[in-house]
Structure formats: structure tokens, C-alpha cells
Amino acid sequence: MKTIVVVGNGMVGYKFCEKFVAQATKEDYQLVVFGEEPRVAYDRVHLSEFFEDGDAERLALAPKTWYEEHGIHLHINEQVTEINRKDKTLGTSKGDRYSYDTLVMATGSVPFVPPIRGVEKKGVFVYRTIEDLEETLAYAETVKGGKAAILGGGLLGLEAAKAVMDMGLEPHVVEFAPKLMPRQLDTRSSKVLQVKLESMGIHVHLSKATNQILGNGSITGMEFGEDDVLDVDMLVVSAGIRPRDELGKNAGLDMGTRGGIVVNDRMQTSDPDILAIGEVALYNQMIYGLVAPGYEMAQVAVDQILGRSEARMAAEIDMSTKLKLIGVDVASFGIPFMPADKGHSIIFENKTESLYKRINVTHDGKKLLGGILVGDAADYNMLLQLYQNEMALPENPEDLILGSRGGGPSAFGSAMDLPDTAVVCSCEAVTKGAICCSVLDDGNESVKAVAKATKATTGCGGCKPMVVDLVTESLKSLGKTVKVQLCEHFEYSRQELFDIVKLKNIQDYDTLLDLVGKGHGCEVCKPAVAAIFASIYNETANVQPAIQDTNDRFLANIQRNGTYSVVPRVAGGEITPKQLMTLGRIAQKFDLYTKITGGQRIDMFGAQLHELPLIWEELIAEGFETGQAYGKSLRTVKSCVGSTWCRYGMDESVSFAVEIEHRYKGIRSPHKFKGGVSGCIRECAEARCKDFGFIAVEGGWNVYVAGNGGANPKHAELLAEKVDKETAIRYVDRFIMYYIKTAQPLTRTAAWLEKLEGGITYLQNVVINDSLGIAADLDAEMQALVDSYKCEWKEAVENPEIRARYTHFVNSDATDDSIEFVSLREQKMPKEWA
Amino acid sequence: MNTQESIADTAVKTWFKAAPIEKFPKNAGACIKYKDQQIAVFNFTRENKWYACQNLCPHKMEMVLSRGMIGEENGIPKVACPLHKNTFSLETGESITGACDAITTFPVKIADGYVWVGFSD
Question: Where are the domains of chain A?
């Protein structure tokens, strides 16, 4: 039996263990692991997530029991202090000695702290381990609200900037180079990123060489040059890494001139019984500070020990990276900056949207050499594949970053076009072939099962969309349809259920469940089916309250402390002074917190359940009606003031918005939907961020559909140009009705259109050219919904049975005394969570 | 209250006469007051069963569970908190979605047209 000792229990050290136990015969080897940190290997890449819940366990790559289960002797909190190569033994900080047959050095790196005067002062930290983070966090508490500098504008530095911002400090990134992320980005993309970060409150200082750290004992500032001082209360140093190589150095192994243990392409050091992997290893004169090459090295080391000596590290290491920095996508791959003699670059830059895309292609335009993406890296996976597999580019390579214009198919084709050898998941080195085989040969029929079997998507997760496509396509090739089913109670998609309800004229949830479902339902299928009944029969949420989400059941938006908010409809955002005073009076009477919403209306917060009918009774008496802010239904139609007042206005946007909001009010749909009407192309109503939007132009209205703000902002697409108002309404009628009938639950129009085969061109054919022959039906169905509108709050207030639902206790008139408010800027707010 | 053990039928010392059956919505929940406690009572009309649990959601400590949607997962009756859709078994009180403490459940019986909830005090 041979003893393999791994020095270092970081990400790469752990990966070595994982691969080794999976590939070696257990009886032949004993694996011994030393880690100097007090805990088992954890995911350093996602260190900033430690803030979210402070749960270090969650970051662990595997629990302690995993090591036990695999017979690994794990020594944490024990540092290897010395290696004796002659008798193949090592000594540890606990004074024990161990012998080895093969030693694997995975000691990683330490943050590089430049020798600046004053760097030892209190309040100066590095950003590497959970302990670093805990110390930083504790100090940050003492200077909360102050400023913190981050020395270094690279990848880690920007991550640290976010961490510092989350600690409640104002972050200032200080970089020596004239640009951010100097290794990955060119000057222009760096500028785009900088502007974006600054808009988020991160200050950036470039071309700054720090002379000294100021302060008496604790840091108070940084001095860059004469009269150039930045006052800060804390400093996080993130100026690169240095390999932890002193152990190898002391053992007499060959070292690089600037550090690092020299290894060959079999990961062997100058002593063939000692291997080195990860950030301590100097390969090709380089230290690779990325996880993916570290994992590859781990595999090569496993191969060597198991006698597969033909396995070699690739001569060229791919440094492609994609990450989400503080919510901004940043990616670079291949050769990001390129000398002009090798090829030419195609660059797209949109400063207003903080977008930058650059691809470098060969002179003949046939091959991709590299590129940079900032702001939107959705196409990174496909671009990386095109580059790595030297695949032929489309005729107009610019389509790769601009999207194909003219409604043709996507410039990328499908993930199935990739060669089998294409590495799809680079963290775990899983190829397209392996993923498809996992489905076709091993019978894994879901992304979850494939992920479990191949480990694809389990690293950074960036390849997930591509893996989903591959699994879906492979299943299709087996003749298996990928069934989209609502939940365990209905083996149907929403569209199928919609048709069933309609054709069989089903009137209530229980009947539907008995007829085509099983079990007793859940919180997923109930509201989805409720929305179907609403769309077909236009019944209000009062009819079947038990299958409505809480908000619909009580016709109000539940808020943090279990109280509700009240939003009356203010169509188009147009409101009279008298109505404003009425809202003010009622809000004051019931002591409600008031705020103007993003949709140009007034939200009143803090109403208790039993107060809702009382508030609405007064609102209705004053002529208001429900705004359905609680429903998956039309919210608002936002408008600019339009030609009635605005000197630029081309048409009456307010009149149109009021008309269209009253047209669609009360209509329930798979998700909420919003509209906008702008009186000219200055677009003050932001109609292109809405599910439908009209913009007045010379000679009519432009009609846009399927945009949204929210988590995944998307601009609406142009459905029709320069049409008159009646035509514009007709097209949007059909668009909404078609969406209501075919979308999955909780899918906004933008996500729905993205999945619609043929996209906007197909939609234009359906609603404008009536390619499916259903336009007349859609028109009639929409008109029926419009004609049957009623205010559900009026219904609730006037009907004693519905009104009786609004009590906190069914056996007492007492109110909920657990609700507490505190004051905030002369209004009230819920008391903080305990 | 959330640290209290769920009450087994056998441990009941007091059967509290809460309210007439028709006060409770079908296939949904309502809240009752017992001394200083708020108890959520659920009427599973489809299965002809009743359940009760604490009204407090242990996730964010708000008195809201009675307003959650009820349902069933693999045969286990559950309630989904209306605030963040954390679900809890109404049989054992365990968190089904995970990451939450268990809730206290109470036995329910129907007699004389009334809903009765069992307490151990």
C-alpha cells in the first residue's frame, strides 16, 4: 500500500482528493491530507456569499464526514513545516512525523501585500480566507458608514469592493494601472465597466501609486503623491497573489526566479516523487490563479500517480473567464487584446447601456481568436466554443455580437452543432459528448440527473443553459418529449390545461383536479389554475378564494409584517387635485404609509386585514376602483404628459394610456403585465421597458411588445410601425390574448417571446398576417374580457359573505396585537424582524 | 412558541372550543385566538380532515401561516407561508422546503358542529 500525502486543503487540494478516490483502487493507497486552516476546504471563489448568511458550512466543498467515508486521513489545523526528501518524511506544526511515497503540494498562494510604508497599521486587511473576512467584518462594524479603499482593481479587488459595500462602507478601488482588470480588459471595455461600477456607488481611482498609509496606529488615509490623499477608514489589499512555496524552497526543489515551484507537464517538481498543483505550481513560467487550470493539474497529478504517465498538461492554458461582478457580466476569452497583424477586431459599444462586446477574428473572417464582453455575457458559452473548437464563423462575423438582423435564425446555431469533444463545462472538464452520452446511453433523463452523473454545471454553473439545451435535444432525439408539467398534481402544461378547461367547460378547481389531476393540489397548481379560470370566464378572485395566492385571496399586497398595502387605479397616472386630497385624507385616517409607485400611482402601506374593507368602502364611495397591484394582471399603463402640454409631443399619450388601461384592467394573465405610452421618441414613459408600449411618431404609433424591467431587463421589440390607434390596439389585443393562452405560469411576455419558436417574426405573422387563422377568435375573446370587467373590491365590500373573510381571528373580534410599527421620516414602517 | 413540541392527541389536557365549523373557509385556513396564542386552523374539505399549527412563520417571525395556501406533497398535507412560500408539514410541523425550524402542530376534533383544538396546558 502506498501513502499519498496532500499538503494543502484548498479548492485544488480537495479536487485532487475527489478525483483520486473516484479513480484509484481503495486498497492500494492511503491518502493523507494536511490543511492549516481550522476548517475543511471551502469555495473561495464565492467567498463574498459568506456575508449573506455568515454560514461558513455552506461554502464547504464536502463535509468532514466525506473524508471519513472515503478513508482519507484528514488533519486540519495542522501545518506541514518541513520536508525531508532523503528519507521521504515530513514534520508538522504538532510535532508529528509522517512518511510518504508521493507528496502532492497544493499549498496555494497568499495575498501579495506590497511593501508600502504604514501597511502594518490597524484597519489594513487582505481578502483570502474566511478568517480574513471575519476580521475585516469585525473592524468594519467599528467604522460603519465610513470609507474603505481596496488596493487593486483586478478580479478579486472588485469582488472585495462589493464585500466592503455590503459591510456598509463606501468603497474606493485604487488601481496602479490606468484601467480596471488590466489582465482581462482593454481600455474601452474597462471604461464601460468603470462607469457602470461608479453608477452603483463604487468609486474608482486609476493610475495611483500608493506612497504610504497614513494614520496614527489605525489607518486614516492613503497618500499617492504630493497633495494627493484619499481619506479612508479601512483598507483591503488585493494586489495579486504570491505562491506559498517556502516549504518547497526549504526542501531544495527548483524554484522560479520570482517564486513558485517549477513543474513539468506531468506536474512533477525537480524531485519526481513530489508533485505540485494549483497556485503554488509554476508551469510555463506562469502561476495560474484560476480554478479551472488548477483542477486540470489535479487530474494530471492523479494520472501520474495511477501510472498513466502519458497524461500531460495542455501546453497552452485557457485563461477564459466569465463572472458576474456586482451584478455586471464580465467575460474575456482567447486573446482578448490582439496585435493587428494577426487579425482584426469587431467592436460594439453602447455607453448608455454599459455594454461592450469585442471579438477578434482572423483576417479572412473565418476563425474566432478571442474577445471581451462587458454588461451582457449571455453569448459567452457559444463564443468560447466557437473559439476553442476553431469552428467556422457565420458569413458576417459581426452577427455574433450584434445578433442577426433581419429576423433570420440565431447566428450561433444550436448547441447540438458542437463537436463531441467540445468542453461545455470547463470547471469539471465535461464534454458535449459526455453530456449527450449520459442521456442517450446511461438513461439520465433530466438536467439534475445528468449533473449528478457528470458533475457538469456543479462548478460555477455558467454552462447550465447549454447543458439544458443538450439534455433537451438529446431526449428529443430519443423520441421522448420533454414534458413540461405544472406540478405533481397535473401532468399537463398550462396551455394544455387552458384548452381542457375551455373545451370541457370546467367551472371549478376541484372538478378539474378530479377529472385530469391527482392528489389534492398545492400552492403551485392552485394559483395557476385560478388564472386560467379568470382568463376564460373573467371571474374575479372572490369566486374561488381558496385557490388564490394570498394577495389575490385578500385583494391586497401582503407586506413584510403581514399587513397589506392598498393601491387604487390611477389610469395613465392622471389624477385630479380632489382625488389626491381624497387619497391623502383616507391614508391619514387609517394611518397608512404612502409612497408614489414606479407605475405612477399611490401605494398606501400598513393596513391590517380587518381594515381593508373599511378603507375600500371609502375609496369606492369616492369613485376609485381596485388597481389590482396584487394580481397577475394588468398593473398600470405609464404615460408621459404628451402633446396636450409637452412642446415636443407628437400625439396625446395620456388619453391613449387612460383608454388602454381601462381596456385591459382586470384581465388576469400568466404573470403581471404593464404598458406604456410615450408622446414622442424621447420616450419619457419608458414604454419600451413594458410588456406593451406605444410611441407616437410622425404618421401614427409604433407598437412595441415583450419588454420588461425587473431582474432581467429587456427592451420591447417592434411589432408594427406607424399604425393608427385602432390598429395598434387590435394588434396588442391579439398579442396579449395569444400570450395568455400559451405561456407557462409566472412567465413574463419577454421570457415567453424568447421561447416562442420564430420569435418576433412569428408573432408578427400571427397577430398581423393571421397566419394561424385565429385572429378573429383572439379579437372576440379579448372583447369578451373587456366587456365583462367588474371591480372586485366593489364586489367584496358589498357582499357580506366576502366581507366576513377580512377578520384576523374567526373566534374573536380582537385584532392582531403582534404587529408593531416604528416611525420613519414622519411616517411609519414595520418594526425590524427579530 | 415555536420552540414548543408538537402536541400529540394523548397529551391533550384541554380541548378548546374554537368556533363553529361554518366560520372556517373550505380548503383554506383561518386564525383562532387561544389565551395569548394565535393558532392557524386548516379545513381540508377535500380529504375531510382538519389540522392546526402555530400562526407564526418561524422564518421571519410573522403571524401569517393561517393565510397561506394549503396543499399536499407526496401525500403529506402542508401549508405554504404567504410571505416566502416556505412549506411545512401539517402532520409533523417539519419544514418541507428546508432551512426553517419546525412549527408546532395541534390536534383538532369536530364535535357538536364546532371545531376544537387540543392543548397540553
Answer: 2-110+242-305, 124-239, 494-553
